[in-house]
Amino acid sequence: MALKITKENYEEILGKGMPVVIDFWAEWCGPCRMIAPIVDELAEEYDGKVIIGKCDVDSNDDIVAQYGVRNIPTLVFIKDGKQVDKHVGAASKDALKAKIDALV
Fold first, then answer.
1. Rounded to 5 degrees, what are φ and ψ at 50?
2. How many CB atoms lie within 10 A of CB 47?
3. The Cα angle at residue 30 between residues 68 and 81, in degrees rounded to 5
4. Dihedrals φ, ψ of 103, to 5°?
5. Residues 26, 74 contacting (CB under 8 angstroms)
6. CB environment 18-42: b (16+ within 10 A), e (fewer)
7. What are the residue numbers of the active site?
């Protein structure tokens, strides 16, 4: 299950020194609900290697603004505290796995 990323735990998550994938989503977003199971599966598969979490755009304005998220779903890939990749829109599990594999 993907970790819930909020204003309260965001800095702590980035401070762990692991690659991070943030799925920016909203409850009302159809494509977000389509990829949610894929994101949860990837979170389990990469447990201990990559932190994969979900950030609700409706309640985390600061994080959304920091990454310039304008459309959802948007997945941001972070390594060493810096954004190294971004994917906007729905995607297949294989496409997301390739991006995550590039982080580790």
1. -140, 135
2. 11
3. 30
4. -80, -35
5. no
6. bbbbbbbbeeebeebeebbebbebb
7. 29, 32
Characterize the bridge pairing of strands 51-56 and 20-25. Answer: parallel
Cα-Cα end-to-end distance for the chain: 19
Name the residue with tokens 């994938």.
21
In this prediction, residue 93 carries a pLDDT of 96
**DSSP codes of every residue in 50-77:** -EEEEEETTT-HHHHHHTT--SSSEEEE
Delineate the domains of the chain, giving CATH numbers in brackets: 3-103 (3.40.30.10)
Scanning the structure block, which residue is given the tokens 């932190």? Answer: 51
- State the Cα–Cα distance between residues 24 and 1, nearest whole angstrom: 15
- pLDDT by residue (tens digit) across 37-74? 999 999 999 999 999 999 999 999 999 999 999 999 99
Query: What CA–CA distances, in Å, run from 18 to 26, 37, 82, 92?
Result: 25, 22, 11, 23
